[in-house]
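Co-fold these.
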Amino acid sequence: MADLGCTIAGIESINPFWLASAPPTDKYYNVVRAFEAGWGGVVWKTLGEDPPVVNVASRYGVHHDAGRGVIGINNIELISDRPLEVNLREIGRTRKEWPDRVIIGSMMAPIDEQAWKELAIKIANSGVHGIELNLGCPHGMCERGMGSAIGQVPDMVEQTTRWVREAVDLPVFTKLTPNITNILWAAEAAKKGGAHAVSLINTVNSIVSVDLDAMAPTPVVGGKGTHGGYCGAAVKPIALNMVAEIARSPDTRGLDISAIGGIENWRDAAEFISLGANALQVCTAAMLYGFRIVDDMIAGLSAFMDEKGYRNIEEFRGLATRNTVDWNALDMNFDTKAFINPDKCIECGRCHIACEDTSHQAIEYHVAADGKRSFTVVDEDCVGCNLCAMICPVPDCIEMRPVDNGKPYVSWPEHPLNPMKAAQ
Amino acid sequence: MGVLMTHKLCAAAEGVVLTDDEIAANFGDLHKPLNAIQAMAAADHCIYCYDAPCITACPTSIDIPTFIHQIRTKNVDGAARTILSENIMGGTCARACPTEVLCEQACVRNHGGEEPVEIGLLQRFAIDHLMAKGGKHPFERASATGKRIAVVGAGPAGLSCAHRTAMLGHSVTIFEAKPKAGGLNEYGLAAYKMIDDFAQREVDFLMGIGGIEINYAHPLGGNLSLRELRDTFDAVFLGVGLGNTNRLGLDGEDKHGVLDAIDFIEELRQKRKKADMTVGQDVVVIGGGNTAIDAAVQARALGAAHVTLVYRRGEDAMGATKFEIDLARTNGVVVEPWAKPTAILGGKAVTGMVFERTARDAKSGKLFGTGDTFEVKADMVLKAIGQKLDATALDGLDLAAGKISVLDGFVTNISGVFAGGDCVKSGEDLTVQAVEDGKQAAHAIDAYLKS
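Predicted complex below.
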């Protein structure tokens, strides 16, 4: 069986599955339940200076699909609303009772050196394995100059990271906000400040829905709403890209990555690892289903690795990073065509209407005298966009078949139709 | 629809009499309506096909994928309007249509080895939602044309034609022979398909368009002649249905206990308390269509100890759908194919029937009696061997194969006189076909009046 152990920022973990700093890691009770369920570590809910914050009622909003499946949720909850001392005592107790599990202390403070350093030292003394700087919270705390208000300014990211590095002799994780133009600027700043690892992504600025009776964004708090932090399956694509950008950039190479963003199952986990993540953090999926979901994450990742022959995580970590390139490096001569398998086709016509209305009119529709409907790809018109294969309700009915055209690799910069090349 | 959905009755065993409550329960909904959660799950099963086969399979061409999509987006009243815009009797059709051989048979989910989308139940969900809300009729009349149309028969064809012509701005007067409107919806469908007086509720709903007047107890013939209607109105639509029944042609058909199945069903439908209906202990039903099944199952529901359904051909030739035949068997009806009646036994009242086994000649395909006979005990015989046109008041109309002859646009040989529903030969003899006939005739009448 594959070894799921991992190392990030020098910290060893029995598996890569940690719970992210959020409501599920708010206190001793939850964290112990998580460890009993099998999670390798937790990032404790973000701690601030006393007095603790006060939260509002009505804290989460939801983005449902038609079948009431959750596409994503957002939240407007602030950091821990319990006294610092209580949290630190519980962290110490949990560390003693669960010596083989990782506990990271998450923190935030106003942009003041003394505040950051004093809080970092207090948390370090509780026995945590490392400290994570919450520079990403996009609601509430940012209005007080913390969270994403710091994370959106690379100089401040570097500064706060450096303060914590100077104050404590522990691995430092800088948690990044996705609510920025270019994730690399923040990651580079964290690296310059001395971060051992970056954690990303924090939640995405969002209004998940509008209550059309209250005429207010959800969650509605006494008739008003505010933007919240979006998370869950919907943000995974954003997170995958940002992780890949950091993993493949020469300027940030070498930073360990604790990947966060819509990880719900082993497959999501494997995708982040393949793009370079050293370890993973999960929140929303646990909030939707409970801590038990880690069972399948462990079993599924293990089965995947066994099947592929990866003995440990390092053996496949980053394998997809090398295949993540700029558009300009893609092969302009690659060609692929849709093929509709008539034996699997249930004749719904979705491929036809999608192609006809919104793509390249490459799927012909015939109705035979007996009423049988058939759909055929016109190869000359098919540009290989994948749309039909994606929307077909039958798995594997529409196959995208690469065309062996015998042409050599040619990138856009070298392409004969590129006017910039002609100008050279 | 699977067997799981078939309605299981409290069946009477010999010598055990059903209580009034058991009988009332037997006449509950055949198919339980979907609740909102079930409707969302059912709607989610729809793929939203392009040029969907279910639309083609529906005689009224309801845009099924669109109305299901509207349910999915919680625009349920919009879904109902989509249905009603093609089929103003979408509520009855949702209950009574043999969806298993129409839209649901055409559902592409069948090709994937899955259950089809529950289109009938979803349609009922949408219509019931709109009707429960009450309020304004969902369609508006065009500005008045000043034209007057006579509709003979307030059945599905007549009402559909009346609603559509009224919507197009014409004034409609309906002449109905019976004391209630609805035709077979009110008098002919099995009671457990149309609970809670749905037929009358639907008539009231449909009349909400305005511009329609109904004269009850006004049959064609007697004081009301086709000529007079043609002279008084700008156009006439005949939706008279099939007023006569076929006879067995045996001695003793007038014996007490020998009835037409449609009369039995009509009487039962009009009983507020079903336990007040008289039923035999040993019931024989003759015929293989849905009327035969409806009569047989309802006889069991009333507490008949033995119900035998006899049909002269094989089961595959029966007009009833497989679902209906299964429904009968599930509820203890003995189905006897390949037998024809040869004698009615008894004195004043029937005591039994004699049947002769039949077979089909392999070469000619003709049916013949084998000479083997058997007897079935019966104190009630229900004949469901077909209905035919009552042509007594239809002087001057061309008939063909026992029905009113119509051309495209449901126009008869008399200018300005149109006909549709069971009294003409269009598609299947179903409510949904009658509604379509009425709708198409309405547009033909509108075009005729404007030409």
